[in-house]
Amino acid sequence: MEKQSTIKKLVDDLGAQDLVVVIGAADPEVASVTAETVTFGDPSFAGPLAGVSLRLPVYHILEPEVKSAIPAEIYEEQAGFLELVADTEEIGRIFREIRGRLETA
Amino acid sequence: MPDPVIAAFSCILAHAPGFVRYGSKPSREIADRPALVLSAIEGHLRGFEEVVAYPPNQVFIGNLKPDDLHGIGQPWYDHPVFPAPRRGPYGEIYPEELLLGMIKLADDFGLVEIEKDSAPVLQGLLESHPFWRGADPGRIGQGVDPGRVDGLIEHSGSLPLFHGGRRVGCVNRHHDRDDNLKAHVLMENLLAKASGALALKNLLRSADIGGDGLDLLLNCSEEAVGDRYNRGGGGLAKAIGEMCGCVASTGCDVKAFCTGPLYALLFASGLVKAGLYERVAVVGGGSLAKLGMKFQGHVARGMPILEDVLGGIAFLVTGDDGQSPVVRLDAVGKHDIGSGSSQQNILESLVLKPLDRVGLKVTDIDKYAVELQNPEVTVSGGSGNVPLANYRMIGALAVLRKEIARQEIDRFVREHGMPGFAPTQGHIPAAVPFLGHAMDGIRRGELNNAMFIARGSLFLGRMTQLSDGLSFLLERNPGRRK
Questions:
Q1: List of residues 6+ apart from B475 with CB closer than 8 A
Q2: Which of B103, B179, B298, B351 could be a cystine partner for B303, CB 3.0 to 4.6 Å?
């Protein structure tokens, strides 16, 4: 809920055009709900983004686009463990699907 | 002196559909949209038979093993166990009528009023149960006139008690300007006391000792019992002990969010090993606040509201009896203040450091018990599969240690982990529901050891950004032949 407020405030203060959200949750289900929330609004209708469609582009920290933008040493230190743990293929599929919906919606 | 043992274990569930409306999340939503939310909740509550036959609940009381859930189709609520006894080797699933009678038995201050139509039923049920046959039936009494309950609810801040869609009484406040003694808080505390007493009674029966056979009780329930001058002051350990006839025991409350049961177990083990006490029981009652926590996700998906039970756990720590599994005090894992807060840091502290100390590999541990929240409850609420995430991280530690290859993580999870089966009752899923299964597995020679790992979200109290964790290793008693 607090993170929803933070994202909403950032959009209110800075505008949405230069913002990208990077999600870090290892669980595909959790990552998917979080990604859905910052693009199409809170699906549980519980937080500040209930009914608010920010349409922010969303990536997961484990996707190659993000990995290639971060120095390898830092990435290994900060995300190496998560990369071992998470189902990166499933996460990639979910995030590509959400971005695809964002483009066509 | 040898390390202490866990000599007995108990866990119980109490069906509490009439209390779901008083869970934290449901009560806030009901305040916003009373008619809509209440009817949605009531339309998705389960009956007692469904709760008893629900596969994770059968695992909780020990009629099924955790790994048996792999062989049951999901959703589990669509695949009831048949036959489904309400009693198992570790405890029992109690109907709501018994819970209502228990909160009246737990009431020393005229906090609970039962209406006269319902009083005989509750009294009869208590008297027919072996635990409470000797209890003072006068506690329930004749019951009160419904008009009195109307007045208390309307004018004196009392909250109605429901069962089967019908009002059966109320819980009163005990001070008109003390938030800690208002009806809702007292209801929460009475339920923790009552469910804790059910778990402790069950433990005493399982250990085959009388109440006077204990000399210390440590309560690890999460409820903050106290008044306006001492919110969270405590006293639940002795309150539960008093209900169970533990006249030779003293006790106190141990609080550490979801890590509470493991701290209590650690303290109990240390005190037994030091020779200060001989038989220490750890007890934890259930948590009203968590009932219906994810009800919105369940209702939205057309599922039954699965958070409709209170949990209770208890275990007995004694000196070495040459039989029961040993708590290895040289292999306790702790999350130091300076340990760092990344998932990797936490698990290294809780898993690798203690294993290194005693010369064991990650794969030497037969079973890891982590936070064992039932995933069917949490996934639909957007919180993911908590045990699976933890098992994958422990597997990743084994990969980093080059004990297994990366592609073997799934197999590691399957062999060394288990599906979550505990109700999402805060401290209740904190690894310890596996204790009975571990003790039996070790006794049958299927397991040599098990590691128990619990973590606590200290930051929820807004006093620190820290989290917490503790782990311990349970091992076959060296005095017992395989």
A1: B325, B326, B328, B442, B448, B449
A2: B298
The residue type at B125: L
Q: Are B193 and B240 contacting, i.e. CB atoms less than 8 angstroms apart?
A: yes
Could you read off the pLDDT of B267-316 as tens digits, one per residue? Answer: 999 999 999 999 999 999 999 999 999 999 999 999 999 999 999 999 99
| Gap from A101 CA to chain B (nearest CA, Å) | 20
For chain A, say whether B121 makes contact (Cβ under 8 Å). Answer: no
Least confident of A51-65, B90-104, B197-211: A51-65
- For B267, the token pair is 């303290």
Counting one residue from chain A and one from chain B, the pairs whose CB atoms sit within 8 A come to 42
pLDDT at position A104, please? Answer: 78
pLDDT at B51: 98
The closest CB to that of B384, out of A30, A82, A84, belongs to A30
DSSP H or E stretch at residue B386: helix B386-400
Identify the CA nearest to A65 among candidates A43, A34, A96, A33. A96
Q: What ipTM does the predicted assembly reach?
A: 0.70
Check residue B133 and give its pLDDT: 75
Residue-level pLDDT at B43 = 97
Cα dihedral sign, B14-B17-B23-B25: positive
Question: What does the mean pLDDT of chain B come to?
Answer: 95
| Residues in A touching B382 (Cβ below 8 Å) | 29-30, 33, 43-44
User: Which range among A75-79, B16-20, B305-309, B432-436 shows the weakest confidence by mean pLDDT?
Assistant: A75-79
Partner A contacted by B465 (CB < 8 A)? no
Q: Phi, psi (5° rounding) for residue A83?
A: -60, -35
Cis amide leading into B75 (omega within 30)? yes
In total, chain B counts a number of residues equal to 482
Residue A19 has pLDDT above 70, yes or no: yes
Consecutive H or E run containing B53: helix B48-53
Are the beta carbons of A86 and B344 separated by less than 8 Å? no
**Percent of chain A having pLDDT more than 90?**
27
| CA-CA-CA-CA dihedral for B261, B263, B269, B271, to nearest 10 | -120
In chain B the domains, ranked by start, together with CATH numbers, are 326-475 (3.40.47)
Query: SS3 of A54, please?
Result: coil
Tell me the percentage of chain B whose pLDDT exceeds 70: 99
Distance CA B380, CA B129 (A): 36
Question: B407 at the A interface (CB within 8 A)?
Answer: no
Q: What is the DSSP string of B153-216?
A: HHHS--EEEEETTEEEEEE--S-TT-GGGSHHHHHHHHHHHHHHHHHHHHHHHHHT--GGG-SE
Q: What is the distance between the alpha carbons of residues B219 and B267, in angstroms, rounded to a whole number? A: 11
Q: Does A74 touch chain B (CB under 8 A)?
A: no
Has residue B481 got a pLDDT over 60?
Answer: no
Residue among B386, B408, B385 at smallest CA distance from B398: B408
User: Is B158 a residue whose pLDDT tops 60?
Assistant: yes
Contacts of A43 in chain B (CB under 8 A): 382
Q: How far is residue B147's CA from residue A91's CA, in Å, rounded to a whole number?
A: 59
Residue of B258, B444, B314 lying closest to B366 (CA atoms): B444
